[in-house]
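Researcher: We are triaging several targets before committing to wet-lab work. For this one, the compound of interest is S-adenosylmethionine. I'm pasting the protein sequence and the ligand SMILES. What I need is the predicted three-dimensional arrangement of the protein with the ligand bound, expressed as structure tokens, so it can go straight into our comparison scripts without reformatting.
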Amino acid sequence: MDGTQAPADSTPGPSPARSAAWDPARYLRFAGERARPFADLMSRIDAELPRAVVDLGCGEGALTASLARRWPDARVTGVDSSATMLAAAATHAVPGRLDFVAGDLRDWAPDGPVDVVVSNAVLHWVPGHEEMLSRWAGWLPPGGWVAVQVPGNFRAPTHALLAGLCQSPRWAAALADAAPRPDAVAEPAAYLDVLTSAGLTADVWETTYLHVLTGPDPVLAWVRGTVLRPVLALLDEDDAAELTASFGAALRGAYPVRADGTTLLPFRRIFAVGTRSS
Ligand SMILES: C[S@@+](CC[C@H](N)C(=O)[O-])C[C@H]1O[C@@H](n2cnc3c(N)ncnc32)[C@H](O)[C@@H]1O
């Protein structure tokens, strides 16, 4: 999944045919596959009784709600800039215990120390996010934790094929600037350096999940919820259909249907967890 620029619910630029808003229902189609890396990330946080927990880029809030279940005595806050995601998240809210607030992670700050900072599948939307991660580490009291996960698949066919199309003569005038950037995330060692430079003990790793997808054009369906969304938002309806058809054909070649009808989507993810010694 995942893309290029920080998404907003309205896209600047000339009369896009469709909103760039996040679509919680489309995003949730692969909720099981997306929950697994979150669970793997959370398994490395060893906080017992945190009082303040924040989920930065909380999206539609289901995973944030799982933080409130894990730490029932904590006050959990989900922060996101997407009105559509926040509207979906509101259904999970428990005022005073689990709250969702609008904010841009580039400048949002808590009103006190935070014992656990989580950000899952978000940082790649924010260019230069290493500085942001370092700032978040500064919020932690002794015994505090920060945990982030980013997709590490910006050179995979899902992204490279889309970037190639965006930069092709047919689409470059409209889409060259929207092409997924191969450097949207750093390599694991860079996140390790950010965390240790902030005085934390770091635990950084990567995993490639092999997602077994079913149904017609399942990889296209996956990327429609993420990396393709801001690209299509720049096109009118006919052009969006043409680009989607070309991209779908390229994806079918890169991710062929197997004899049993399934399609495999290898998906690399990078995890970084840091803790401040108590
Ligand atoms: C791929 S979704 C991940 C949602 C959730 N963390 C999860 O794992 O299901 C990325 C989320 O990050 C949010 N986001 C991206 N850039 C942001 C920014 N600069 N400020 C606040 N939220 C941002 C988007 O609105 C979106 O809800």
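Researcher: Any quick observations?
Model: Residues 1-18 have pLDDT under 50 and may be disordered.
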